[in-house]
Amino acid sequence: MNIDFVRSFFVVVKAGSLNRAAEQLHISQSTLTRQIQTLENELGGKVFERSTAGVALTAAGQFLLENMRPVVASFDSIAATAREIAAGRSGTVRVGYLLSATTEFLNPVLATMRRARPDANVALFDLTPAEQIEALRNGKIDIGLIGPSGALLSREFYTRRLTAYPVFVGMAEEHPLAKNDSLRLKDLRNEEILSASEELVPGYDGWITKHCRRAGFRPRFRRGTSSLTEGLSRLVSERVVTIQPQYLTKTAVPGVVFRPLRDDKMQWDMFLVWQRGKVSQIVKLLIDLLADKGAQISHDMP
Question: Containing domain of residue 194, as a range?
């Protein structure tokens, strides 16, 4: 249904006649008549009863009037917002993030942003890496704060590596490897590593496999879970290990310990991913602040 023809229908209803409505719309009456006829053909019935006194709504016309007003208003609002985004003038930025990374990374940046731009509106969405990627593809978020999965997205979106965290091995405190102060990747040769579903963390298993092969072995994976807390609990019950970034070692789970992995080439990259095309000043500011925070974290790491 042509939205402009629906708008013309509204004008006719308010004006009470095709002639007056045509004058208000600055089009000929014959053009307006064709628009209304096209609308009626799409509906399969009349929306007006015409007389020498003007027009009166039919039952179908009354239903169309009452139910299409909010639809057109919503359309206009969406279109206006889309134009603001396309022009880089939007005052809202929608951010997808990993909950585990917010305390150290996102929260301080948002505090700085509120001081710099108190008028800015930031909408936050706690999403897995896979959910962030889908939301970026659907235009539901402007920015994603993603781990190593971000390395897979450079062809679709703009990406920036913000920082790299040291990697730790998580295990049960009774695990034989727990007696070591630190580990090498080759120490995991005979261990089962807790996997991460491609539906949740794309590229995670491939990232581990790449580094294990460099260390001279092929990793053995145990099927993972949809929850980090559940996964860490399985370290105790199933004698598997997990490889995670430093910031996750602060997650307290009874019976679980973390040991640093001393392999210089294996690190947990934190990526910023955002939509291609022109971005608003608000989005650009947040990107710059996140980049600065990433540089600060990298500088402060031992």
Answer: 167-266
